[in-house]
Prior knowledge:
single chain; 454 residues; alpha/beta; 5-stranded mixed sheet; 28 strands
Amino acid sequence: MSSSTAPSPSHDDHDEDREKGAPDPCAGPARDLWTVDEHLDDVLASVSPLEPIELQLLDAQGCVLVEDVTVPAALPPFDNSSMDGYAVRVADVAGATEEFPAVLTVIGDVAAGADGLPEVGPGQAARIMTGAPLPPGAEAVVPVEWTDGGTGGGAATGMSAASAAPEGAAGEVRVHRAAEARAHVRARGSDVRAGELALAAGTVLGPPQIGLLAAIGRGTVRVRPRPRVVVISTGSELVQPGEPLGLGQIHDSNSFALAAAARDAGALAYRVGAVADDAESLRSTIEDQLIRADLIVTTGGVSVGAYDVVKEALTGDGEVDFRKLAMQPGKPQGFGAIGADRIPLLALPGNPVSSYVSFELFVRPAIRALMGVGDLHRPRVRAVLDVDGPLRSPAGRRQFLRGVYDRETGAVTPVGGAGSHLIAALAHADCLLVVPEETESVEPGAELEVVLLG
Length: 454
């Protein structure tokens, strides 16, 4: 039977128990075990990047560009003010001080988006707003704080609203400081110039990239869409969170964790309510989901029990291969392609740690491959093991332990035990410690490879 957060052993726990030394009558000889790398290679060899589509900018967030984007026109497209103040000629404010201010005639306002700009002549100034184009004749901008704001008093702290005080656009202004040429002026093309590369193919579009595309006038962009991942948990014992538990029932946590993990990887995730231990119901559910799936992930029901429904439902047609991997946790796995469109399906174990570790190792890279990104895998580092005593690991198995990594010291500390049901420890971990297949004991202070999850 599949499971989620049950503290008592499930069929997948039985597989983990066998890894600790008990014989496994279904495993066959050691050569029948797949390595972690073989299984991952098999998955990635069957997954191709999704076909590109044209999307509106906000719909393209999180997607990957499939073509270089060049700048059609300079950004900013014109010289503009970086301050609220007055556009002036340099010679007219040379030597200006608070005691001996330069007195200029204000000839009008220049607001952002304005056209019909006034020309600034000798002895003149134009009141200008941030982002507004520098009017002809002006050579610099003096901030309003360097002036009396046209009030005839001391230093101004701001401008009155144009609607409330239209007379501010006329009269005189006293400037208390000199300004150099181009002071507080943002030059045309100072951000990017026409013809420059704005974003390269392969870029994942986040908020800053979306902003740049909008700034250079792109309303749509050609990308690979975010993969649609359907997550299905199985088990008659599973109950929706928020609902009361009956005897022998547990809350379904796996589908929530894996749907969240799929979103974190960049996918659009759809969580399906838990399916009971009935092969026909599961087959029907999967068929219904194919229309909106680029990838299907099931959790539970892949081991050797009489109620392992995923294995029962998907073995007969030969589309999904169920195998045992030389790893702990997560020994039982399934992978194949189903339906007329050959949608990839990864069948993960039901225990929460087993399913999450399996997701990180196999499903996340598959999602990234569908997206067409270059970095399929989580970053890995070498870290010093910080424990009181040696860690034990089963011979011939690659073990993945939960841990906390200290970036300052380069040390890693395990959290929780090796049990595949210990979800509380998983919630406090930010990395996975990798113990190689040939290693049965790791001493304190030894170096291990660490997969960073955060």
